[in-house]
Amino acid sequence: MKPAKLHYWILGWFFMALCCWCTSDAFTQSDIHPHAWKKLYFAHHWPVTVCKMNANDCHDPPKYWTIHGLWPDRAEDCNRTWHFNVTEIKDLLSDMRHYWPDVLHSSLNRTQFWKHEWDKHGTCAATLEVLNSQKKYFGKAIELYQHVDLNGCLLKAGIKPSSSYYKMTAIKEALTRFYGVTPKIQCLPPEEGEKAQTIGQIEFCFTKELQLVNCTAREGGSNAVQAHLKLGTSELSVCNDTLPTYYPSEVQNHK
């Protein structure tokens, strides 16, 4: 082969190899970080409303707000090989049963709810060092629950379960005034014959540094969080500011 042709042949192979390397590196980076997320949704749900949505074997639900989950946005099911192991949170079980109970399945020995939350969300949250084990993930959620103290905040604002209706704007204003950020509030829409929506879930948003921030609408991407708001045949949605809001004390059809 002549020197000139050999030169161009070598250059051609060099550029092809460079392109392949760059493409391979891009795929590698994608594989390493396939579930990028920016903030955490810390969801509390009102057990009485949960029971109204799906009776199942839901009996005598707690009369205080309990943890639904700690959810990274834009990410779910990040590591299907990292299985839930209840023995890793054995030191937390007493607090877990109180603050993070399986409202729909009241048996103290049931761990399916926690398994679901770890598999779908904990494995994604674990990209943070402070959440990178099952004990850290569930333990930090309990710590955040006690720090936020939603039950105490509502009581201080004079908002408690009642047969009377509340204005949603009054609930939002009380929460924003207390926390300095705007949470996301979901309600069960009125059923036929009802005039009021029923409050069901309140989410607080945290940065990766675990600082409270406003819960604003996410731009683009699949709504991994929204999928958790459906139970049985009923579905929660962002509360309507113009509808009266029911904060039920008992599981019953309120019309």
Written overview of the protein:
The chain has 7 helices and 10 strands. The protein has helices at residues 3-32, 47-53, 93-99, 112-125, 134-148, 150-156, 168-179, and strands at residues 39-45, 66-72, 165-167, 184-188, 197-207, 212-213, 230-231, 234-235, 237-238, 244-246. Strands 1, 2, 3, 4, 5, 6, 9 and 10 form an 8-stranded mixed β-sheet that branches. Strands 7-8 form a two-stranded antiparallel ribbon. A hairpin with an 8-residue loop joins strand 4 (184-188) and strand 5 (197-207). The longest helix has 30 residues, at 3-32. Residues 6-11, 17-32 and 218-233 have low confidence and may be disordered.
Q: Approximately how much beta-strand content do the residues carry?
A: 15-25%
The proportion of residues forming helix, as a percent range, comes to 25-40%
Order of helices and strands: HEHEHHHHEHEEEEEEE
Low-confidence spans: 6-11, 17-32, 218-233
Number of strands: 10
The biggest sheet, with number of strands, parallel, antiparallel or mixed sense and barrel status, is: 8 strands, mixed
Ends apart, CA distance between termini: 91 Å
Summarize the structure.
The protein is α+β, with helices and mostly antiparallel strands and 255 residues long.
What key attributes describe this structure?
alpha+beta; two-stranded antiparallel sheet; 36% helix; 17% strand; globular
Would you spell out the secondary-structure blueprint of this structure?
Layout: H1 3-32, E1 39-45, H2 47-53, E2 66-72, H3 93-99, H4 112-125, H5 134-148, H6 150-156, E3 165-167, H7 168-179, E4 184-188, E5 197-207, E6 212-213, E7 230-231, E8 234-235, E9 237-238, E10 244-246
Parallel strand pairs: 5-10
Antiparallel strand pairs: 1-2, 1-5, 3-10, 4-5, 4-9, 5-6, 7-8
